[in-house]
């Protein structure tokens, strides 16, 4: 399921990256590049760079990067094909009818059929809620205060108490057992055969941002366990990548999105007019969910239950949201347990006041830490102050750190200068962010070794892309096979092929990577900075990079060498002599960056 490489490249070349991104981000030219505020994370100083020469963008703050296709995919939440069609239309390029491979056509057909099946199931559940057997479930919903309009808006339904009810209905619609098995709506065992996963439950259809039913959640009627049950992972449902209610919340036009725990919390808030509420799907909040939210907001209000489990959930979500470039605040609902209970008791106006009074996430973390220490005891108080200082060190920007320092000192009656001295002392000792330091082990050392091997390969790729003369200077010593990490080996092969054809084109090369994480990593390599002041420094740095790369390569190839492979052994001996010459300083590689 792919258009030709030539057509993809034609569309990319006709979509100047500066022109395209300027429609989304205000850019200012500085030197040979353009800079602006990154649209993918919250920042005050421009770190988002767009290179017209490379036809690539890169954010030195959050690491987002890629070519014009990547930008449209990330910003608009498009698939590659959707981004391609959007840019083709913008550039006036006529796309041919898509040619699908047999496998791609089968996968696309399967997903389309599963979506159709889920839609039919959701309609059946909705119908059952209004039948005689659904009276109890309907009464449960109305007793919880839900209106008919709200029930209809969320498509809430009911699964019958008979465990083969949905199965018999869908078989009557001519769906095969194999398809039903893949839908996630049924369980299968040797004794009972295939039977409904959801029975005697209120059903909450789960929709993606395009309002397509991708899964279901069910709340049991009675005392059976579990109380809530979600669809398993399927070809169309990944709970870590979706949020309940986001299909509605994303169009709310409110500056914040509220993240809470359950279906009924979301529904109750929407009914009360807070239509910017979403919930995670029975799992802890994930990085993928944070990245999804980033498409639609810059600030998230965490509204978990006010019990101990809710506090822990908020503390886990805060660093995930920060890493995604989102601002986070925590809403206090005490003495009420959840938003549904709060709204029923005090009403929407009081609920809005609590939202307006949401606590800054850093201050919430500090307040939670406070409960772990006896502040009446001098030792406990000192340890608490050390914890504050340690957390303040996590702010890389001095101005932001000082602002939080003043706020926390004001709240706890600490002299700002005393706290500043403590922060500086801890910084000098290198104790910042100690909570993230993992214990050392043999495995950790092996990981560090692997990271070192990756680092030299990444740096060499940066040299090759940024300084074309590097190929001719280093060709005697290294080639694509010296890049032993699979991703970097693939990139190196492409670069050497491009160079042999007379043009190194990183933006074109990036078209070959469809995985978003691979795109991000390759873009980071292509946009890395090599701070070099003099020609001498430049030559020394290049020589050291080639030496490290070659050393890593020799180590890997030596471990894999067959003792009977005499030709391979001879090549390794020659390579080792070249390595010794580079290490001894007898050879220094010279490169021109003009």
Topology diagram in text:
Layout: H1 5-13, H2 17-22, E1 28-30, E2 33-36, E3 48-51, E4 56-59, E5 65-66, H3 68-76, H4 80-91, H5 102-128, H6 135-143, H7 148-154, E6 157-159, H8 165-172, H9 177-182, E7 186-189, E8 193-196, E9 201-207, E10 213-220, E11 228-230, H10 246-249, E12 256-260, H11 263-271, E13 277-279, H12 287-293, E14 299-302, H13 308-323, E15 327-330, H14 339-346, H15 348-356, E16 359-360, H16 361-370, H17 378-392, H18 398-412, H19 416-429, H20 442-466, H21 470-474, H22 486-500, H23 506-510, H24 516-526, H25 535-560, H26 566-584
Parallel strand pairs: 12-13, 12-14, 14-15
Antiparallel strand pairs: 1-2, 2-3, 3-4, 4-5, 6-9, 7-8, 9-10, 10-11, 15-16
Helix pairs in contact: 3-4, 14-15, 17-19, 20-22, 20-25, 25-26
Strand order of the largest sheet: 1-2-3-4-5
Morphology? globular
Strand percent estimate? 5-15%
Q: What is the count of DSSP helices, taking H or I runs of 4+ residues?
A: 26
Textual characterization of the structure:
With 594 residues, the chain is α+β, with helices and mostly antiparallel strands. The chain is built from 26 helices and 16 strands. It folds into 5 domains: 87 residues, Zinc finger, CHC2-typedomain (DNA Primase, Chain A, Alpha-Beta Complex); 134 residues, DNA primase DNAg catalytic core, N-terminal domain, CATH 3.90.980.10; 119 residues, Dna Topoisomerase Vi A Subunit, Chain: A, domain 2 (3-Layer(aba) Sandwich); 66 residues, no CATH class; 142 residues, DNAb Helicase, Chain A (Orthogonal Bundle), CATH 1.10.860. 52% of the residues lie in helices and 11% in strands. A hairpin with a 4-residue loop joins β3 and β4.
């Amino acid at each position: 399921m792919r258009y030709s490489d030539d057509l993809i490249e034609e569309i990319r070349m006709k979509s100047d990256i500066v022109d395209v991104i300027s429609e989304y981000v205000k850019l200012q030219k500085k030197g040979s590049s353009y800079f602006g505020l990154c649209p993918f994370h919250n920042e005050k100083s421009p770190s988002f760079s767009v290179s017209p020469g490379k036809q690539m963008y890169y954010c030195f703050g959050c690491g987002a990067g890629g070519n014009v296709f990547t930008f449209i995919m990330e910003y608009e939440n498009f698939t590659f094909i959707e981004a391609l069609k959007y840019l083709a239309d913008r550039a006036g390029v006529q796309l041919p009818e898509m040619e699908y491979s047999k496998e791609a056509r089968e996968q696309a057909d399967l997903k389309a059929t599963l979506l159709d099946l889920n839609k039919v199931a959701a309609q059946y559940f909705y119908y059952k809620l209004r039948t005689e057997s659904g009276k109890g479930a309907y009464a449960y919903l109305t007793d919880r205060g839900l209106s008919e309009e709200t029930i209809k808006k969320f498509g809430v339904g009911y699964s019958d108490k008979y465990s083969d009810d949905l199965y018999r209905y869908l078989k009557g619609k001519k769906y095969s057992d194999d398809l039903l098995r893949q839908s996630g709506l049924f369980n299968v065992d040797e004794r009972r055969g295939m039977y409904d996963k959801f029975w005697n439950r209120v059903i909450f259809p789960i929709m993606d941002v395009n309002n397509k039913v991708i899964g279901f959640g069910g709340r049991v009627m009675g005392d059976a366990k579990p109380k809530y049950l979600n669809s398993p992972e399927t070809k169309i449902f990944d709970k870590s990548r979706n949020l309940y209610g986001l299909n509605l919340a994303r169009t709310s036009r409110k500056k914040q999105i509220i993240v809470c725990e359950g279906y009924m919390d979301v529904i109750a808030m929407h009914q009360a007019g807070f239509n910017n509420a979403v919930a995670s799907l029975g799992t802890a909040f994930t990085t993928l969910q944070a990245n999804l939210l980033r498409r639609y907001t810059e600030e998230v209000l965490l509204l978990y239950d006010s019990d101990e489990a809710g506090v822990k959930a908020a503390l886990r979500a805060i660093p995930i949201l920060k890493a995604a470039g989102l601002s986070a605040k925590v809403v206090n609902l005490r003495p009420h347990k959840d938003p549904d209970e709060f709204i029923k008791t005090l009403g929407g106006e009081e609920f809005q006041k609590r939202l307006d009074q949401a606590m800054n996430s850093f201050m919430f973390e500090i307040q939670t830490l406070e409960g772990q220490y006896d502040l009446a005891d001098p030792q406990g108080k000192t340890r608490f102050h050390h914890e504050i200082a340690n957390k303040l060190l996590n702010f890389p920007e001095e101005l932001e750190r000082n602002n939080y320092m003043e706020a926390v000192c004001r709240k706890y009656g600490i002299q700002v200068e005393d706290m500043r001295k403590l922060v500086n002392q801890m910084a000098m000792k290198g104790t910042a962010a100690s909570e993230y330091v993992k214990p050392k082990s043999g495995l950790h050392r092996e990981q560090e070794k692997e990271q070192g091997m990756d680092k030299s390969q990444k740096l060499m790729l940066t040299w090759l892309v940024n300084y074309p003369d590097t190929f001719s200077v280093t060709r005697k010593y290294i080639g694509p096979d010296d890049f032993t990490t699979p991703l970097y080996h693939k990139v190196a092969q492409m670069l050497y092929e491009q160079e042999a054809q007379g043009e190194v084109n990183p933006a074109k090369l990036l078209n070959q990577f469809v995985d978003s994480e691979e795109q991000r990593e390759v873009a980071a390599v292509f946009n890395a900075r090599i701070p070099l002041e003099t020609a001498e420094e430049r030559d020394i740095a290049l020589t050291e990079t080639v030496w490290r790369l070659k050393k890593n390569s020799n180590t890997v190839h030596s471990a894999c060498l067959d003792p009977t492979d005499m030709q391979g052994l001879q090549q390794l001996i020659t390579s080792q002599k070249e390595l010794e010459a580079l290490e001894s300083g007898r050879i220094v590689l010279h490169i021109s960056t003009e």
